[in-house]
Design goal:
With 536 residues, this protein is of the alpha/beta class. Among the domains are: 114 residues, Succinate dehydrogenase/fumarate reductase flavoprotein, catalytic domain (Flavocytochrome C3, Chain A, domain 1); 92 residues, Methane Monooxygenase Hydroxylase, Chain G, domain 1, CATH 1.20.58. Helix content is 35%, strand content 16%. The protein contains 16 helices and 20 strands. The strands form 5 sheets. It has a 5-stranded parallel β-sheet, with helices on both faces.
């Protein structure tokens, strides 16, 4: 059965983090918007962001300074036009968030009445924040606005399966996107959602690694769907590992914000054995900027020291900052660590690097357009040229707001055309899975091999081994997908294996070390380099 042709009344936004909510809120005055969240609305990477959002606000700051810092962190692969475009709109972005009710930490003497902090790679204080839970504050404020808007339909536990494209419909025409198949998880039913535009705002792919600071939602769904639909994907080899994730058996994904190091916390070695006390600082030996070096340098330094000394973790010592300061500026970290028996005002914090941010993704322009007409993408799902080979701290939230605004404007400016009849999801040839052990086993194997072979330090042999095993896993996953009804776990695993292949193939094609990609076989940085773009 085929649904009758109609004018699609909606824009479907896949993802309910900052990028998705920004698009929805800016677009809702013009269009009806459906926002899909594959878990609860609260479970988005935005809500986990601690540090803050960049704003070129102070009298000691400038757009040129921010662009220069972004380029320095991006190790020669930042698109200067993109960086300047976003920096020029940073003050407007923060002003919009303030207007939406985000409770940033105040400072009566600060620009816009806001307290600004500093993070690694930034020349000055330019980070607007809400204590140490900025993402949570932003997400809660925008969710409240979205819930109250009559033109926004928020759907929890709905997961996109695949984009509905001309190719899928076997239409002889210029390829475009007409909507999305989406799984209503609670009803175990795949629905056909026609749309005048689809926006991918699904975040990154941190869950492809065994250790990550990301929530369970970060399975590369938007990147994988766009790739399968024929879109270009760029710079997937550049996976940012945050240097300091809490090392504790009860808390495997809790981030220790970079702002702690910005305020003076130091990285130190723990005890190296009997009679050898801990407390030796090591970052000055790796970079003249010490703890304020960009994340890729700090993460590699920690990885080096851990492997050199056979350590499970290093220490982040924030005790010199004092209990009063820590409780005022980092209340979330102080409380969470104290609950786990770590008093950060009196003892160092055990930390390890963890996969944190995907600097590559779906290739888009500065209005969120992907390669297929009707398809847009915003946020960590994308490659816009802003992050280059390494993202500068707190640029990610800024990118979501600035390009969320431009994306909404671009969609609103497009006329709504007639849509073809879209076929319902066909599951006539599949059955319910008889066991889930295949998915669980393949999920664990994929994440472990990516951690061991495609981590902070890489070699060609490791990458080739990873690619071989990924090919085997893919054949098992594809067979499972072809024979059984889809579930969220199966869809996420399918997306993860697609993204894993993109990461490895991109890494194999880069014959140098640059930014977040470090290869022992190619340790030098080439004098001239270009983004890695994969074409399906």
């Amino acid at each position: 059965m085929v649904s009758s042709p109609s004018r699609p009344p909606t824009v479907v936004v896949i993802g309910a983090g900052l990028a998705g909510l920004t698009v929805a809120l800016r677009l809702a005055a013009e269009r009806r918007v459906v926002v899909l969240a594959k878990r609860s609305l609260a479970e988005a990477a935005t809500a986990w962001a601690q540090g803050g959002i960049v704003g070129v606000l102070g009298s000691d700051d400038s757009v040129e300074s921010h662009v220069r810092d972004t380029q320095d962190a991006g190790a020669g692969l930042v698109d200067e036009h993109t960086a300047r475009f976003i920096a020029q709109r940073s003050a407007e972005a923060i002003g919009w968030l303030v207007g939406e009710g985000v409770p940033f930490s105040p400072d009566p003497e600060g620009p816009l009445g806001l307290h600004l902090t500093r993070e690694g790679g930034h020349a000055v204080r330019r980070i607007a924040h809400a204590a140490d839970a900025t993402g949570h504050a932003i997400h809660e404020a925008l969710l409240a606005k979205a819930r109250a808007h009559p033109n926004i339909d928020l759907r929890e536990r709905w997961m996109a399966v695949d984009l509905i494209t001309s190719r899928l419909l076997k239409r002889e025409e210029v390829q475009r996107c007409y909507g999305v198949y989406a799984l209503d998880i609670d009803r175990a039913r795949v629905e056909t959602l026609a749309a005048s535009a689809v926006v991918l705002a699904t975040g990154g792919v941190g869950k492809v690694y065994r250790y990550t600071s990301n929530p369970d939602t970060s399975t590369g769904d938007g990147i994988a769907m766009a790739w399968r639909a024929g879109c270009r994907v760029g710079n997937m080899e550049f996976i940012q590992f945050h240097p300091t994730c809490l090392y504790h058996p009860q808390e495997r994904s809790f981030l220790i914000t970079e702002a702690l190091r910005g305020e003076g916390a130091q990285l130190k070695l723990p005890s190296l054995g009997p009679g050898v006390p801990g407390g030796t600082r090591f970052m000055p030996a790796h970079d003249e900027r010490a703890e304020l070096a960009p994340r890729d340098i700090v993460a590699r330094a920690i990885d080096f020291e851990m492997k050199k000394h056979g350590l499970d973790h290093v220490w982040l010592d924030a005790t010199p900052l004092g209990e009063t300061f820590l409780k005022e500026h980092f209340p979330t970290i102080h409380a969470r660590c104290l609950k786990l028996g770590i008093d950060i005002a009196r003892q160092p914090i055990p930390v390890v690097p963890a996969a944190h941010y995907t600097c590559g993704g779906v290739v888009t322009d500065l209005e969120g357009r992907a390669d297929l007409p009707g398809l847009y993408a915003v946020g960590e799902t994308t490659y816009t040229g802003l992050h280059g080979a390494n993202r500068l701290a707190s640029n990610s939230l800024l990118e979501c707001v600035v390009l969320g605004h431009t994306c909404a404007h671009a969609i609103a400016a497009e006329p709504i055309g007639e849509a073809p009849g879209l076929p319902p999801w066909d599951e006539s040839q599949v059955e319910n899975a008889d066991e889930q052990v295949v998915i669980a086993h393949n999920w664990d194997e994929l994440r472990l091999l990516m951690w061991n072979y495609v981590g902070i330090v890489r070699t060609t042999k490791r990458l080739e081994r990873a690619l071989h095993r990924i090919d085997l896993l893919r054949s098992e996953i594809d067979e499972y997908y072809a024979n059984f009804r889809v579930t969220r776990d199966l869809l996420e695993l399918r997306n993860l294996v697609d993204c894993a292949e993109m990461i490895v193939r991109s890494a194999l094609s880069r014959h140098e070390s640059r930014g977040l990609h470090f290869s022992r076989d190619y340790p030098r940085t080439l004098p001239v380099s270009f983004p890695t773009v994969l074409v399906r």
